[in-house]
Amino acid sequence: GAGVSQTPSNKVTEKGKYVELRCDPISGHTALYWYRQSLGQGPEFLIYFQGTGAADDSGLPNDRFFAVRPEGSVSTLKIQRTERGDSAVYLCASSSQGSYNEQFFGPGTRLTVL
Amino acid sequence: DQQVKQNSPSLSVQEGRISILNCDYTNSMFDYFLWYKKYPAEGPTFLISISSIKDKNEDGRFTVFLNKSAKHLSLHIVPSQPGDSAVYFCAASAPGTYKYIFGTGTRLKVLA
């Protein structure tokens, strides 16, 4: 079956602009996660959804970052007033439940803020 | 504060030999550990996991060992194959949380 998909695969924007990154999880997966991977680092947790609600958003770095999952499937990560330090690969993952279930990752969106 | 550490950024191994990748953690609350493999331009792919109630888990050529007293885990790949060349991430999670804490990765190169 189809895996986790993310669009766009690459996004180049200018400092101060607004961006949206989309994630389509594996069908039927109730849990969805966003991670951010900077160069030379491992993925860093941003936010976790169980169904439509954000169960843990402790990893969002500041209030410029926001994510939604209105129907419990597709999720959008929104970044306002982008800064050069936001440049990274943004990874989405989904799992069939919350804990102790393998998270399946998408290919990521590479965001570059000029 | 890096709670999961992979101190070897890279490792080269001859094809057919054993690859040993190491990971250390500082949070004694972690009770579930995983290894992911990542190829360029792809997302991480799950490889193998281990619960803290075990000290070993084996899946084909891959074995993960957990030493709770030392807060150390390792991934053994035997025999290593050129297709195993990738970046390997160790990850951990604590009870009641669903997020993974990842290490910085080890780039494995298997030489033919």
Assembly level = heterodimer
Give the rounded overall mean pLDDT of chain A.
94
N-to-C SSE series of chain B?
Answer: EEEEEEEEEEE
Q: What is the makeup of the main sheet of chain B? A: 6 strands, mixed
Beta strands of chain A, count: 11
Please give the alpha-carbon distance between the first and last residues of chain B. 38 Å
Please name the two chains that share the biggest interface, counting residues whose Cβ lies under 8 Å from a Cβ on the partner chain.
A-B, 27 and 27 residues
Helical residue percent of chain B? under 10%
Strand content of chain B: over 45%
C-alpha-based Rg of chain B, rounded: 13 Å
SSE succession of chain A = EEEEEEEEEEE
Give the fraction of residues assigned to helices of chain A: under 10%
Q: Structural class, judged by helices and strands of chain B?
A: mainly beta
Shape of chain A: globular
Determine the structural class of chain A based on helices, strands and strand pairing.
mainly beta
Task: Give the uncertain stretches of chain B in residue-range form.
Answer: none
Task: Walk me through the structure.
The complex is a heterodimer of chains A (114) and B (112). With 114 residues, chain A is mostly beta strands. Chain A has no helices and 11 strands. In chain A, the strands form 2 sheets. In chain A, strands 2, 4, 5, 6, 9, 10 and 11 form a 7-stranded mixed beta sheet that branches. Chain A has a 4-stranded antiparallel beta sheet with strand order 1-3-8-7, with no helix packed on it. The mean pLDDT of chain A is 94. By secondary structure, chain B is mainly beta. Helices cover 0% and strands 54% of the residues of chain B. Chain B has no helices and 11 strands. In chain B, the strands form 2 sheets. In chain B, strands 2, 4, 5, 9, 10 and 11 form a 6-stranded mixed beta sheet that branches. Chain B is globular and about 40 Å long. Chain A binds chain B through residues 4, 31, 33, 35, 40-45, 48, 50, 55-56, 59, 91, 93, 98-100, 102-108, and chain B through 4, 6, 32, 34, 36, 41-46, 49, 51, 89, 91, 93, 95-105.
